[in-house]
């Protein structure tokens, strides 16, 4: 999640606590209840393979349906969960639910890769590989069907620790993506040593690629770097056809963004994939 000041966090806590019948509860207890009351849910945003147009993957994105505030964005509450350490349990729930949904789609003949966002707090738990494997096995999936996203800034904050964990996860067969690439500060040294499969170019760059020459330069060099190192390149935050066409000309592998689709519930996703499939099979 993007940076949030301590003041903003405090305000959100107060707002959420103030509007509920459970005013006596601490904020942490409130979040714990959210888990027990099934107030968290996942939406899925598709990723499209540019070369042939098929929907290759979806990214699972967390939402909190709050009793009085409505649906709260993860950018707001994930920092709070990280602060209290509750992201470990909530993150575990995300993985379990994403795996359950992927297995359900697979049984229905819908074959997709599932991208899951990991928080550094969650990812640095020593038993993280066992926890995620438990969900994969219980749902009869293979690790390679999951792409684990860790942001560039999280990955680079304790790079030796990250390296150790990524190697363990890669060994188990998981696919690894560096998220929000371009917003952190990578050392080339670790870009070479981390077992990376995919770089996701941050939407702040892709989004202004058709308006600003400086953004084009950055996107072009990030893409060249990614391609040269043999990674798959995904551009996030693609909002217009012109942005899409520009990225295609750069040979970006996949795109994700509002131009293709906004994040959606699981039931709508299968209809969306079917519609894209029909469009692709129509003679032009
Ligand atoms: P992210 O992983 O970079 O996910 C992409 C975010 O960009 C999503 O925001 C998505 O809705 C938004 N987005 C996608 N396409 C466009 C576009 O064309 N234009 C614009 N303006 N936005 C677009 P969302 O769902 O609010 O999530 C925000 C961040 O919260 C995520 O950024 C990720 O870092 C974090 N997050 C979400 N779910 C989870 C989770 O389950 N666990 C953890 N640890 N973090 C999560
Ligand atoms: Mg982000
Ligand atoms: Mg992500
Ligand atoms: Mg991102």
UniProtKB/TrEMBL annotation:
Coiled coil: none annotated. Residues 24-277 form the EAL domain. This is GGDEF domain-containing response regulator. It comes from Billgrantia aerodenitrificans.
């Amino acid at each position: 999640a993007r940076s949030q000041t301590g003041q903003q966090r405090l305000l959100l806590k107060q707002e959420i606590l103030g509007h509920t019948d459970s005013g006596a509860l601490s904020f942490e207890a409130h979040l714990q209840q959210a888990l027990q009351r099934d107030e968290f849910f996942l939406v899925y945003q598709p990723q499209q393979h540019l070369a042939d147009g098929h929907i290759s993957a979806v990214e699972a994105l967390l939402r909190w349906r709050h009793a009085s505030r409505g649906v709260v964005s993860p950018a707001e509450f994930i920092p709070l969960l990280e602060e209290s350490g509750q992201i470990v349990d909530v993150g575990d729930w995300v993985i379990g639910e994403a795996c359950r949904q992927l297995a359900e789609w697979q049984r229905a003949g819908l074959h997709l890769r599932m991208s899951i966002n990991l928080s550094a707090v969650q990812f640095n738990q020593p038993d993280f590989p066992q926890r995620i494997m438990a969900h994969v096995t219980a749902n009869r999936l293979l690790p390679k069907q999951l792409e684990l996203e860790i942001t560039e800034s999280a990955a680079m904050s304790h790079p030796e620790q990250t390296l150790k964990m990524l190697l363990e996860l890669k060994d188990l067969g998981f696919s690894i993506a560096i998220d929000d690439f371009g917003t952190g500060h990578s050392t080339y040294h670790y870009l070479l040593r981390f077992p990376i499969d995919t770089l996701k170019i941050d939407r702040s760059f892709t989004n202004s690629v058709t308006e600003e020459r400086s953004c084009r330069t950055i996107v072009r060099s990030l893409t060249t770097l990614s391609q040269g190192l043999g990674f798959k390149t995904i551009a996030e935050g693609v909002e217009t056809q012109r942005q899409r066409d520009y990225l295609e000309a750069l040979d970006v592998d996949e795109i994700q963004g509002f131009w293709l689709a906004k994040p959606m519930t699981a039931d709508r996703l299968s209809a969306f994939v079917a519609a894209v499939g029909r469009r692709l099979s129509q003679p032009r």
